[in-house]
Amino acid sequence: MSASNILSDLMARVGEIGGRILSTANVHETLPLEDLCNELLSHRGEATGAAIGQAIFDRFDALDGGGKHAFFSELHSRFGVDIDAMEKAFVHWHAHKKPNDARACHFHSEPKSQELLRRLNRVPNGTMRLIEMRNHLLHAIKSSPDLTGLDEDFRHLLGSWFNRGFLELRRIDWGTSAEVLEKIIAYEAVHEIMGWDDLRRRVAAPDRRLYAFFHPALLNEPLIFVEVALSDGIPKAIGPIISALNSAVDPRLATTAVFYSISNCQKGLRGISFGNFLIKQVVEELRREFATLETFVTLSPVPGLRGWATKAANASGSGLLSEGERSLIAELNASKTYPLETHKQSALESLTAKYLVQGRSSRGGPADPVARFHLGNGACLEQINVAADQSERSIAGSWGTMVNYLYDLKNIERNHEIFANGGDVICSSAVRCAANKD
User: Fold this and answer.
1) Is 177 an annotated catalytic residue?
2) Catalytic: which of 108, 374, 394, 398?
3) Structure pTM?
């Protein structure tokens, strides 16, 4: 039995002991859920704490959507910062200005909800259940933006617990456990895996690789995974890569590694970034295995293109789009035939370039989320591929357009710094030229 399994078994036994202790008083059944959280913060014993935490999770899971929303509102209001203690700490620091006084200010400015989450994390399978709880919180925030403060507590702790030092990179192949392989099929978010034969091509073919990050607290739950195809050039379409009829490339002769699908598996970890570490480590793994590889690129969707373009075309007084581009968007939205005619493909390429280079989100930075991810990692927007994906999802999101982001190992850090400091979109001259067409 592995060390992590031994620890999980021990924690489960501790929880059982605590449950027997609490069952005599029915504490976990009679108290309101928010008061039960207070009980968890007041108990020091591991056994009773684990039992109370288990009860909190179980009762939370039994709530409907409205009940969960109300619970988050109570946590936000009742488990915040102790204002009196924080003010006293700051007064003391202001009078003495000693390093330990400054640390005391930091300690007393921490909301009680963070300690509550730490104690819930000690419950058997607590980390996974907190991730699921945060997923519900993200839904609640859509109608109650004031709950973002509570989400910051989750993000702060999850960011610490899931930093790169704890993550384990594993290659997934046909010898990987069926439990993990089934989850890969279920979690694939970009190009659906059509059963076991399709999965086998993606993980067992000589020119394919699949890597995933795991965390010791989640055992066989992948956090994020990337699918790689070895090629002899930069691809312009997804069909030849995922088709069952594609011809395999001799991996000994491949010059290009194509990251054609990146899937985040845990919705409750949204905003906790570790995808950049995944790509960079996979690049190193591939370079060690295949000496002929020279180019590392993605074949990525452009999920926000159609929505952005349609909104911009309908906006009165906007000077971002030309009349020709507005007409193009109307034609594209009305079209039932794909792929498009050649002249429309050229115009769509220019519109895509404008979206990716000039389009901005309400929070700043590029409008497209996939672009923000790769550009933030130091990639360069290399090539736009119209009619690259004729799937229903791609047509709905980008009229079938995909792009290549190039990870030039010599320039990754420079590109990252430029993007991080100024928000400039690093792109090839061809893309820049297309973005500036009238």
Assistant:
1) no
2) 374
3) 0.87
